[in-house]
Amino acid sequence: MSNALIRRLDAGATLLPTDRARLEVATSATIACPPRHDVTRDNDLPQHVHLVVEGFACRYKILPEGRRAILALLLPGDFCDFNAVLLGRMDHAVATITACTIAKIPFQTISELTTNHPRIARAFWWATLADAAITREWLASMGQRSAAPQLAHLICELFTRLQIIGRVDGESFSFPFTQEELGDTLGMTSVHVNRVLNQLRDEGLVSLHARVLTILDLPRLVQISGFDRSYLHSLPVRLAIPA
Amino acid sequence: MSNALIRRLDAGATLLPTDRARLEVATSATIACPPRHDVTRDNDLPQHVHLVVEGFACRYKILPEGRRAILALLLPGDFCDFNAVLLGRMDHAVATITACTIAKIPFQTISELTTNHPRIARAFWWATLADAAITREWLASMGQRSAAPQLAHLICELFTRLQIIGRVDGESFSFPFTQEELGDTLGMTSVHVNRVLNQLRDEGLVSLHARVLTILDLPRLVQISGFDRSYLHSLPVRLAIPA
DNA sequence: CGCGAACTTGATATTTGTCAACTAAGGTGG
DNA sequence: CCACCTTAGTTGACAAATATCAAGTTCGCG
């Protein structure tokens, strides 16, 4: 599969071929991580930046009351804990959802890349700002949208983000989340996720079988969710010209 | 009033006296902004970074459905639109809540400071990461806490953040928000804010008169909200030694 | 084929929203 | 300095959304 990090950065930042080559090298040391496994724990003082190369992961936090909040879904090309480079201590955890390939980049490599290659530094900076923009959109969505639009919005976002990194096949894409995970993401119970998801199915907007989601009516999904991709700060995918 | 930006950065980042002096100079060109006035609009392509020097402001977004989500409360020492330096276009707006003093820092000055003064660059970087950490905590709070704990959590956060920048007097601090603004911040109606606020008052946890909030029972407020300041990534205030 | 995890469904409880009226507070012109 | 006027806050009755609890059912895997 094509390099998701580079595709993602290319959609929003500016890299030269030499930068891409350096990034390929820096992210080539990977580990395999089983599903539902912590990559970084809350309160950790990581010594590496982790990058999702393949698979799905999430940021989460266990509140003192014991409930779990999922704060972000991490796709191939997303950094898990770039914030720890400067903040030091993690204020949340990162866990895999599916089995993942994770690149481990030593702080020293990050430091070398950002010190000597300003375009790479800017691209990393861009990625964390884009991340923050997604978190803001989620916050707005959580606060202001009711369950169905909120779920529809998440589906539109995932569709768009996966498209950018070339992980969409027609109108279908991998959607490996349990309803419990969706509930912790959307701030509702898994029971309610179930009902709302069935509502979207009944209305012919999406289908979901064997962890593959297919969008059946994108315009209506966009309309009921109020989705507007501009917060992703990424150019639309440029399709390869068919031979 | 003491320089809030420097107090805030000193609580989490490392600056030398020369850095502080440069920041003082860079933020000395200020404008007065009336209350309820846009500082930066959604979709803008700003040419300056705005910094709140005095007063309260907020990030907000109007969703396509017409509802307003308040995404952050900006206190003295908070940047309004640092993200635009790299992202270019604003994906949300910033408005004052009270009358504010706002510093306008040209992109060129930011660029000069970050290029030539790595500690300042790191401190700016730190500030935007700390900002993102607050947004994540809000997201968790919005998703998982019910109305009273959520409001209590916001009060604890404001108390702590204002303490860091020296804007707390005993247990009291400025709390200039209308119940409508609080509703848009917490994802509930102003009617519900009113009821929950009265609940906190009735239980003897806080009092609120003339836009000044006084915490009457901090331990219990912390307990019901599950507040833990570590996500602010700032050292506790070191009180000046009385003469 | 069986077992555990995930999903589904119904009945009911709780929280929060909506609507509408009323009260209090702050600011301005006479 | 008062009267008015607008905005913010308060309250009650009721409606809607979502949570909770409990019981199945289905699915994927060993």
Provide a descriptive summary of the structure in words.
Two copies of one chain form a homodimer. In chain A, 44% of the residues lie in helices and 20% in strands. The first copy, chain A, is an alpha+beta fold and 243 residues long. Chain A has a four-stranded antiparallel beta sheet. Chain A has a three-stranded antiparallel beta sheet with strand order 1-7-3. In chain A, strands 8-10-9 form a three-stranded antiparallel beta sheet, with no helix packed on it. The longest helix of chain A has 27 residues. The mean pLDDT of chain A is 95. At the A-B interface, strand 5, helix 5 and helix 7 of A face strand 5, helix 5 and helix 7 of B. Chain A binds a DNA duplex (30 and 30 nucleotides) through helix 8.
Could you name the key traits of this structure?
44% helix, 243 residues, three-stranded antiparallel beta sheet, four-stranded antiparallel beta sheet, alpha+beta, 9 helices, DNA-binding, homodimer
Q: What are the SSEs and their pairings?
A:
2 copies of one chain form a homodimer.
Chain A (H helix, E strand, L loop, with lengths): L3 H9 L4 H10 L3 E4 L4 E3 L7 E7 L2 E6 L5 E7 L9 H4 L5 E4 L3 E7 H10 L1 H27 L2 H18 L7 E3 L4 H8 L3 H13 L3 E4 L2 E4 L2 H8 L18
Helix pairs in contact in A: 4-5, 6-8, 6-9, 7-8
Chain A binds a DNA duplex (30 and 30 nucleotides) through α8.
SS-based class of chain A: alpha+beta
Q: What's the β-strand tally of chain A?
A: 10
State the helical fraction of chain A: 40-55%
Mean pLDDT, all residues of chain A: 95
Mind describing the biggest β-sheet of chain A? 4 strands, antiparallel
How are the strands of the biggest sheet of chain A laid out side by side?
2-6-4-5
SS summary, helix count of chain A: 9
- Rg value of chain A: 18 Å
Which stretches of chain A are low in confidence, meaning pLDDT under 50 for 5 or more residues running? none
Rough shape of chain A?
A: globular
Order of helices and strands of chain A: HHEEEEEHEEHHHEHHEEH
Strand composition percent of chain A = 15-25%
Terminal-residue CA separation of chain A: 19 Å
Largest interface: A-B, 47 and 47 residues
- Give the oligomer, counting copies of the same chain as homo and different chains as hetero: homodimer
